[in-house]
Amino acid sequence: MNEKMISPDSTNTAMTDHLLVQCSKYAAVKEYADQATIHNRGEVKLGLSIIYSGQVKIGNYGIDGSYQHSVTLLKGDTFGEFTLFNNLPRTHHAMALGRCKLIQMSENQFDQCAQENPELSKFLLRSMSLKLHITLEKLDDIQRLPTYIRLAKLLLQHADQHGSVKLRQKDIAEQLGVTVLSSHKAIKKLAGLLLIKLSYGAIVINQSAQFEQWVQQQMKLGQLAKPD
Question: What is the pTM of this model?
Answer without folding.
Answer: 0.73
